[in-house]
Amino acid sequence: MGVSNSILLPDSTSSDDLKASLASPVRPFGSSSFKPKPTDSDDDSETSAHQLVSDRGLDSDLGLRSGFLPGSPPVCRMDGSWARWEEALDAARGLEPGRGEEDEDTRQWRRMIREELPVLEVDALEHDIARLRRAHLVLAFLMHFYVHSGKLVDESMPNQLEKIPKGIAVPLCAVSKLLDMPPVLTYADTVLYNWRLINPADGFTPENILIETTFTNTPSEEHFFKTSLLVEVLGPTCLSLMKLAIDEAIVTDTLSVTRIASSLLVLATLIDRLRDVVEKVRDHCDPAIFYWQIRPWFHGGQREMEGVVDSKDPSRWLITDFGGPSAGQSTLIHSLDVFLGVDHRPHPSQTVSSNPMKQGAPSGEETFMARMAVYMPSHHRRFLSELAACLENSSKITTFPSLPHVATHSVRSLALATPATSDLRASYNDCVSALGRLRSTHSKVALLYIVSQSRHPPPEGSAYMEGWLEKQKLEAEKRQESKKAHLGTGGTDLAKFLKRCRERTKDALID
């Protein structure tokens, strides 16, 4: 095989090594740790992230070398008969959301999808994980293009269920079943498996990566996805620090407590670097372009999958109901919550929907976090589950001699068991505070790109202008009745949800 441009950390990494690497000027990652590597596999990520967890904690594995990204560059284009999907996707570029078939280009493309795109078999892809991922990405993009290029409709009204043509629906459902992922566009599609190297010889550096597939071909959309990708690149170091802490818990001596505290201090610094990367989304992603031209393509909803029989009712086609891609689907951020023991369960009477599209839905923070896991790659879901199990209190775990009543791998439990003035407790709180700062920055970004933009009109001629004007009229009437500004807007619901997430993180601080 040729050279695979793997994303690699050094084979052995100490807390001191990580401290030294973080002392360098703030960059998403250092090029020295990410070099091309000869391999016998096109995708060495299949020694999957969930295998990091065993009965004794986090195992050293390729997951520590590439994090939640694939170990080698993703497949960028399907070949053979499946190239028909790529050609259909190429033809969709330039379509605008909500135009409907009154637009000639949209009409012709949608007709081609319905009448000319064949139902292609995917059995030959079963053991080719890299091409399966590309197939899921392309088919999911095609489905979202088909749904959102149509005329705007109120999906809450009867008989408004969008039927997905069988040329997309059948292979998408088949590929999704093989991957154990939902048949909809996900964060994994748009970020984890959606990049390529400009010059393979230069390896994985910020300047040497491009986002492969977008809806709009705009710099704003590419930068939006690339920002999340650069966050994920810090994942290997985060996982290494978690491993160091859990491994020290196995050693069971007083020195281990000191070493865990040191690892947590480095992790806090790293979380602050995650925050720096998130904040830089503003550099090249225009909020108005994001809200009115990019974000409309993301929405999920109920879909009827033509040609896919419903196993519960063979007389009808399968109906699916999923959301779209979201940074909330990042396994990295969830793993930090699990590792630090941040509890996102909603307090009584404080449940709030995180989805402005589904007002009144019984959905709180815990429900949201669990729902996001459904959209993750299956080995990422297993990783989170096994990490949580690893950190639970267990009588099988040897206790610290200095903490005879503690039996846990959980850094939070250890911190709670140490004196209030201990370095471990201070380091733990530093980590939680850093995670809180990350969430505050994310909230500001979300409010700027969603809540704020919802109050500004769409571009002249946009398919969304009529709906926006009607919404403003309704909101004006509500404000007049309630005498309170912004009451009842979808953005307000999002703001409440983000606030709850920040509060739950702050609650994890130990007094």
From TrEMBL:
Keywords from the named record: Heme, Iron, Metal-binding
Any GO MF annotation of the entry: metal ion binding
Region (Disordered): 1-58
Domain of life: Eukaryota
One of the protein's GO biological processes: 'de novo' NAD+ biosynthetic process from L-tryptophan
Binding site for heme b: 442
GO cellular component, one term: cytoplasm
Protein name (database record): Indoleamine 2,3-dioxygenase
